[in-house]
Write a structure and sequence with these properties.
single chain; alpha+beta; five-stranded mixed sheet; five-stranded antiparallel sheet
Length: about 1000
């Protein structure tokens, strides 16, 4: 009888324990008080407050003999063992299983409760509850262990019901206590593991940062080393540059000293041979002595002899070997007399004999040779103009050598300064790079130290949190085990054993409350102000209730209790939450723009950067890269140039007689490396063709908007009669230029006179060349211009063309018009005194977009003309016109005037040819670049695209006598009919004089977009 009853009782107790502790499934798993923080924290609002483990209980039940019994063990086996030892072993094993469950690698607490309930016997339960039960309950419980039915029959039903209520309340109170412990443990776990996870994240971030900083430290050290090597190389190159420049400067300075001495000789000779204006062409005569200077032939060669011993001594003192040879060469190259009059015998030489010069003395056979006789040094008067001009040419060579060396030294200095600046800039760049690398190194080392210090702090925090976690979790593990084993399992065991004898409430008639695991009611953690939070920077505090928020937890009833079972515990409760510092993510600035590519070709690098505004902390998101790079200019360094399409054809260089027009292609993309590109003059970039090849009529006049400086030569080499021929030619040339035509301003003329060259001694003792003369500023008063030209005088100086260019530049800058062409026409005998300076001044003018026309009067072609072609504007073929001598110029002036006007004027036309064409068209141009205002005539548009003849037809068809035609790029082809009052008298008067035709009753509007025409009234 007893055996099946006991078996049934045990079975019922097991069922009740299973139903009771199923609520614990997954619940206690949330107590992840895991050692060393190895378990992830589970949010209360996800998957319940605690979670279960999927490991089966049988794995633990059958784990070795340490548990004491097997699942299939009989009652006799338990009785054979020591009761105390069995209880201790069971408690230790249950605590171990609870610990495993807390660590997430064992069975759930519900499964542990089943094991505990199935393995605990009444004796163990009573032993656990010794002194903890009310006396009457404990007495009743002891009766349940009586061996005779008589003793068990003494159990009173009322007493059993009273005990049932007490025991149910004890189980209920145990559940409340377990909830307190579980919530306390959960709150601690969230605080501890939340901070722990932040510390672990910070450690990982700091470790990654330290690795990157280590790489940056290596890179910065390499940058410093590279900068040191580059600095050493640049210093070496700078020192080499200084040494080379010093040697070159010393050599040039020595040569400059020689050239200065040579130039000083010819400065003196040039002044000594200057013509006296009062004596005309003769040299100055001393009071009672012969000529001031004579050209003499000696056995050693040609030389200049001065009658004045002081002058002779001075020239011998100044004379250098180079100057002596140059002087003999200049005198020896003349194969005709300088004008010496042979009136006496050759006097004794007063100068030291000169070394034999290459010029040979013409031998005398029977009679003196005609070309050598002039070289006898006799009393007489030489032609000072020819002699002075000859000396000026030789002086010009020395001046050119002096100027060229001066220019070369200046260029060397500029190149040295530029190279020095480049190397200094390079050194500055290297120093900046080194400084930047050192700053980066210092910053990196500082960051490494800071991060290392932070990492040590985080390691210490991690150790403290782990120690606190392990210690506190051990306490909670013991409490939970005690409550489960003693206050729930043992009490339930006693209650069920006691009520086996009850007729009213046997275990089969009892139903305890069954409920679900704790879960968040709203999923939100609310602070005291009613705001949802996830963290609180004021945490942690000693009093955990002083920070963070609270979360409402709830659980649902799964099985309602009956009147005999344990009632349901509270289904809602608040839990502390959000008790960790808020994570701070890294905040970075926006990216900068991409830097300049480090190389122009063959794979350079460009980068962009950004800075860290807020460093991460408390497990926040780490910072991304502060610098990014990308490849650039990956193409080859060898690249051919790319040309644009052909430009428009330039205006024709001549109005008639066959000019040239060109078009060009500019470089769009320049060459690189070893690339190739056609030169400007190559056919791929320059195209030209003939234009206006019709014959010139001969009466062409210039009506261009041109500011023209006439540079007139008055040098001694021209002689006086030659200068007069040139002056008359220039005077007649101005007749072909018009200051106003077709109602529009045309040419303005200025006159500069050069050839007055002479040396001027400055206050500091240096010599300079006299400036050219400003005869007339730019003006449209051509009568005044002609008056000034007619008054020009022969200057008899050397050819200071460079000073003429300088004067022309000044005149154009002071009186030039912004929209007019600036031009200089040089009329000379084709000679010049100093090539270098003249070439520089000519280039300066061309650089200012000044057109240079060359009209040399030279009987024969020579090398000087080649230089004039270079100095003329490009192409020289249309900006250079040689007049073959003074005699052809004197008797054929009109021919050469027509050539110069046709070639040098950008807008010239033939009145005769124009009149013939107008006779056919029966309309004439009266105003260029403008049309009548509204007072003078009404305008009506007729065509948007058409010719001048088309527009004239439109006007005739409308019975009108005037029309306007578009004249610029935007209006070309447009046609307006003008209601202009045109009488036959008005037409004839306008046809006779186009200078400035008046608009009847009104005025012209100069817009630059339309040209106005009138029609012969007889043809309408």
């Amino acid at each position: 009888w007893l055996k099946p009853r006991v078996f049934k009782l045990v079975q019922q107790i097991g069922l009740v324990a299973s139903a009771l502790f199923v609520t614990m499934k997954g619940f206690m798993w949330g107590l992840t008080c895991a050692a060393l923080g190895s378990l992830p924290m589970v949010s209360a609002h996800r998957g319940g407050f605690l979670r279960a483990v999927g490991r089966h209980i049988s794995d633990h039940v059958t784990e070795g003999a340490g548990f004491g019994v097997h699942a299939s063990a009989g009652a006799g086996d338990a009785a054979n063992g020591d009761a105390g030892s069995h209880s201790t072993m069971l408690l230790a094993r249950l605590e171990s299983m609870v610990g495993d469950a807390i660590l997430g690698k064992g069975p759930s607490l519900s499964d542990i409760a089943k094991v505990g309930h199935s393995k605990i016997n009444l004796e163990d339960a009573l032993r656990q509850l010794n002194g903890k039960l009310p006396g009457d309950v404990e007495a009743l419980v002891k009766l349940t262990g009586a061996r005779t039915s008589k003793q068990r029959g003494a159990l009173d039903e009322a007493s059993m019901q009273k005990a049932r209520k007490i025991l149910n309340n004890m189980i209920f109170s145990a559940w409340l206590e377990l909830d307190d412990v579980v919530f306390e443990c959960k709150e601690f776990q969230e605080r501890n593991r939340g901070s722990y996870e932040q510390v672990v994240a910070d450690l990982a971030r700091l470790g990654s940062q330290l690795a990157k900083l280590g790489q940056e430290q290596v890179s910065a050290n390499q940058g410093v080393s590279s900068a040191d090597a580059r600095r050493k190389d640049s210093d070496s190159r700078l020192e080499t540059l200084k040494q080379e420049f010093t040697v070159r400067r010393f050599e040039n300075s020595r040569e400059m000293s020689i050239r200065k001495n040579d130039l000083a000789v010819f400065d003196f000779i040039l002044n000594a041979t200057a013509c006296d204006e009062k004596a005309g062409a003769a040299l100055a005569q001393l009071a009672s002595h012969g000529p001031k200077v004579q050209v003499c032939q000696t056995t050693d060669g040609l030389e200049l002899n001065f009658n004045n011993p002081e002058l002779q001594a001075k020239v011998e003192r100044l004379m250098t070997p180079t100057a002596r040879l140059a002087l003999r060469e200049a005198l020896g190259q003349v194969d005709h007399p300088l004008g010496l009059v042979e009136v006496g015998e050759e006097p004794a030489s007063t100068s030291t004999a000169l070394p034999t010069f290459a010029a040979k003395v013409v031998p005398v056979v029977e009679a003196p040779h005609a070309t050598g006789q002039w070289k006898k040094c006799v009393d007489g008067t030489p032609n000072c103009g020819l002699l002075h001009d000859l000396m000026s040419l030789e002086w010009g060579k020395f001046k050119d050598g002096f100027d060229e060396l001066t220019h070369e030294m200046a260029e060397n200095q500029q190149e040295y300064d530029a190279a020095t600046r480049n190397l200094n800039d390079e050194l500055t760049s290297i120093n900046d790079a080194k400084t930047k690398n050192m700053e980066e190194l210092a910053s990196t080392v500082g960051s490494i130290n800071t991060d290392t210090e932070q990492m040590n702090e985080k390691d210490e925090q991690k150790r403290q949190l782990t120690h606190e976690f392990d210690k506190t979790c051990a306490v909670f593990r013991a409490k939970i085990t005690e409550i489960l084993f003693t206050k729930i399992c043992a009490v339930r065991k006693v209650r069920n054993e006691l009520l086996v004898n009850s007729k009213v409430t046997p275990p089969s008639n009892m139903s305890d409350c069954d409920f679900s695991d704790w879960a968040s009611k709203t999923g939100e953690c609310m602070n005291s102000a009613g705001q949802a939070i996830l963290c609180d920077d004021t945490c942690p505090r000693k009093d955990p209730y002083k920070c963070g928020g609270k979360e409402v937890m709830k659980r649902d009833v799964i099985v309602l209790p009956n009147a005999n079972g344990m009632k349901c515990p509270p289904l809602e409760r608040e839990k502390l939450c959000g008790q960790k510092k808020c994570p701070v993510d890294c905040v970075m600035s926006t990216w900068s723009g991409w830097s300049k590519c480090t190389k122009d070709c063959e794979s350079g690098v460009q980068s962009k950067t950004r800075s860290i505004l807020t460093k991460p902390r408390n497990g926040g998101k780490g910072c991304d890269a502060v610098q990014e790079s990308r490849a650039c200019h990956t193409g080859s360094c060898d690249r051919d140039c790319t040309l644009v399409d052909w430009g428009a054809w330039a205006p024709c260089s001549m109005a008639c007689g066959g000019g040239r027009t060109t078009r060009t292609r500019k470089v769009l993309v320049p060459i690189r490396g070893q690339g190739k590109c056609p030169k400007k003059e190559a056919g791929e970039r320059l195209d030209e063709k003939v234009c206006n090849n019709q014959d010139c009529v001969g009466d062409e006049v210039c009506i261009a908007q041109q500011d023209l400086i006439l540079m007139v030569d008055a040098s001694g080499s021209l002689k006086e009669d030659g200068f007069e021929i040139m002056r008359d030619f220039v005077l007649n040339l101005t007749q072909r230029y018009k200051p106003e035509y077709f109602g529009r301003n045309a040419v303005r003329i200025g006159v500069a006179l050069f050839g007055n060259g002479k040396l001027i001694t400055a206050p500091d003792g240096s010599t300079t060349v006299a400036p050219a003369l400003n005869v007339q500023e730019l003006t449209d008063d051509f009568d005044l211009v002609r008056q000034k030209i007619a008054a020009l005088k022969w200057q008899r100086g050397f050819t200071n063309m460079a000073q003429g260019f300088t004067m022309a530049d000044v005149m154009l800058s002071q009186g030039g018009r912004p929209r007019a062409q600036s031009a200089v026409m040089v009329l000379s005998d084709g000679k010049y005194s100093f090539k270098f300076q003249t070439a520089e001044k000519a280039q300066e003018l061309k650089d200012k977009n000044v057109q240079i026309f060359m009209a040399p009067i030279a009987e024969f072609k020579n090398k000087e003309l080649d230089d004039l072609k270079k100095w003329a504007s490009s192409p020289w073929e249309t900006n250079f016109e040689r007049i073959p001598g003074l005699k052809p110029l004197k008797y054929n002036a009109e021919i050469f005037i027509q050539k110069l006007v046709a070639k040098f004027c950008p807008d010239s036309f033939s009145p005769a040819k124009s009149a013939a064409q107008e006779a056919l068209q029966q309309y004439i141009l009266v105003h260029e670049g403008g049309w009548p205002n509204e007072v003078c005539a009404k305008r009506q548009m007729k065509l948007r695209s058409g010719s001048i003849d088309d527009c004239a037809k439109e006007a005739r068809d409308d019975g009108k006598l005037a029309f306007g035609v578009g004249s610029n790029r935007n209006t070309r082809g447009m046609c307006f009919v003008l209601d202009l009052s045109v009488t036959q008298e008005y037409f004839n008067k306008a046809k006779a004089n186009r200078t400035n035709v008046q608009c009847p009753g009104g005025a012209w509007e100069d817009s630059g977009m339309f040209d106005s025409y009138i029609i012969n009234p007889q043809t309408v």
